[in-house]
Amino acid sequence: xxxxxxxxxxxxxxxxxxxxxxxxxxxxxxxxxxxxxxxxxxxxxxxxxxxxxxxxxxxxxxxxxxxxxxxxxxxxxxxxxxxxxxxxxxxxxxxx
Length: 96
Description:
Layout: H1 10-18, H2 32-42, H3 52-60, H4 64-95
Helix pairs in contact: 1-2, 2-3
C-alpha cells in the first residue's frame, strides 16, 4: 500500500486507507468514523464499535470495551476491599 503524503489530514489518511491506499476525490470523501469502519471491513476486522477511536483500537487489536470492563472490575474490587477493611477496623475498635 502506498504511503501517505506529509501535511494531509487524519480524515484524508483514513479515507486513503479505506480506499486501498489511493486518495479519494474530494467529492467521494467520507467522515473519519465511516472511513475507519470501511478500513476495518477491508482488513476483515469485525466490530460493533462506531466511533473513530474505538474502530481504530479494534483494527489495532485492542478493544476499549474489554479494557473498560477490566478497569471496572478492578475498581469495584478495590472499593469493596477498602469498605471491608474499614468495617473490620471499626468492629475491631468496638471490641476493644
